[in-house]
Design goal:
By secondary structure, this protein is mainly β. It contains one helix and 22 strands. It has a 20-stranded antiparallel sheet that branches. A hairpin with a 5-residue loop joins strand 17 and strand 18.
């Protein structure tokens, strides 16, 4: 143009600039919220019951991510560990004496504690399922159980102890099924029950004993069914009842030796079966 005049871009109103900065700030805050904001939940008295980070999903729900800690009322740590995905913030339930901690989404090592302080369980999760070696303790710190898991299934050697340190149960597991010899014990160390398992099914002779060591029951098994002779004794050693089994059913007439009707087995018939299914039922 003549005269060498120069054209400049029109300036933007300050209000427009402020609005743009505000929008940018909101976008950044939203992005940070999706990446993870720290959330703290409290009991009615204001004490903390849970603290950790959440991830904002596309549907607007908030999911637990990363490290979380949970407390009992009164301030003692209840449990701690990491979440990957699956558990929602709304799943964290408040209960009278503790916080209900979702199991979905747990990953890596988790520790739980008694209301008195000592560690009561240590083990790892993978995708919300127990994985690897787990240990449990009584409130005084004495060992209560040790077991191995593969993606939630018992797999490996399981041991439980009575509070006095005597073994209560011992046996091997393979993909959540009992394998080989399993025994349970009274807190005196006396065998309570014993028997062999194949593919999770009772096999061969299984026996049950009284605290005195006297045999109370002996019964054959095949593929999980009673098979062959079954004998029941009183604790003083007297034979009380006997029968033959085929495929889990009594074959022929049973015999009873205490004067009662033979077709009515004595009340000691069913032993208490220790399943190992675990062992210690934790609420967290």
């Amino acid at each position: 143009m003549e005269g060498g005049s120069t054209m400049t871009a029109p300036s933007r109103p300050r209000s427009t600039i402020a609005a743009s900065l505000a929008a940018l700030s909101l976008a950044v805050a939203a992005a940070c919220g999706r990446a993870g904001e720290t959330v703290e939940l409290t009991y009615p008295d204001g004490s903390v019951r849970a603290r950790g980070r959440v991830h904002l999903a596309e549907d607007g729900t908030r999911h637990l991510r990363g490290r979380w800690e949970f407390w009992y009322p009164g301030g003692r740590l209840q449990c701690e560990g990491d979440f990957s995905r699956g558990a929602r913030l709304s799943d964290v339930a408040e209960r009278a004496d503790h916080t209900g901690v979702p199991r979905a989404g747990r990953d890596g090592e988790w520790r739980s504690y008694s209301q008195h302080g000592p560690t009561v369980s240590v083990g790892a999760y993978r995708g919300g399922r127990r994985h690897g070696t787990w240990t449990w303790c009584y409130d005084d710190g004495a060992p209560e159980a040790r077991a191995s898991y593969v993606l939630g299934a018992l797999d490996g050697h399981l041991v439980r102890w009575h509070a006095n340190g005597v073994i209560a149960e011992e046996g091997d597991w393979l993909r959540a099924e009992r394998l080989g010899w399993h025994r349970t014990y009274y807190d005196s160390g006396q065998v309570r029950t014993e028997g062999r398992w194949e593919d999770g099914l009772a096999e061969g002779l299984h026996r049950r004993f009284a605290p005195s060591g006297a045999i109370l029951e002996e019964c054959g098994h095949h593929r999980g069914e009673r098979s062959g002779p079954r004998n029941l004794w009183s604790e003083d050693g007297a034979l009380v009842w006997s029968a033959q089994y085929v495929d889990g059913e009594i074959d022929g007439a049973p015999t009873r030796y205490d004067g009662e009707p033979a077709d009515t087995p004595p009340p000691i018939v069913e032993p208490t079966v220790e399943t190992g299914e675990l062992v210690v039922q934790q609420t967290q």
